[in-house]
TrEMBL record:
<keyword id="KW-0808">Transferase</keyword>
<dbReference type="InterPro" id="IPR045906">
    <property type="entry name" value="ULK4"/>
</dbReference>
<dbReference type="InterPro" id="IPR016024">
    <property type="entry name" value="ARM-type_fold"/>
</dbReference>
<dbReference type="GO" id="GO:0016301">
    <property type="term" value="F:kinase activity"/>
</dbReference>
<keyword id="KW-0418">Kinase</keyword>
<protein>
    <submittedName>
        <fullName>ULK4 kinase</fullName>
    </submittedName>
</protein>
<dbReference type="InterPro" id="IPR011989">
    <property type="entry name" value="ARM-like"/>
</dbReference>
Amino acid sequence: AEKLSSMKDMDWNDFLQRVCSLLDCPEKNTGAARSKLNLLYYLCTVAVHKEVASKLISSQLFPILIQQLRSASNWDIRAKVARVIDLLALHTSELGENVPVSEVMLFFKFFFGGSFVNA
């Protein structure tokens, strides 16, 4: 996380570009889904750092996370995306009114509500 927070703007933009392109590609096979999950685990790790969370939540990554939450076919990926969004919202220095974190709450309600009904 320290390395991310100390990156120069050009390096930070390159990092974000790579992360966004990896998240935006479809999970055509289990290897692609596993790679995406590993990236999301990494984002969970760095999202607990205030400076990194603040930079990520206000970047082009956040709309891609929301899109993944809505459209990912793999439920493990959806759950991990929701966790990343949750951690970003929790650890950011300022959460703007335009950040749609309520969608994550609806996801959790749907996800856990369906789990309890099916149990």
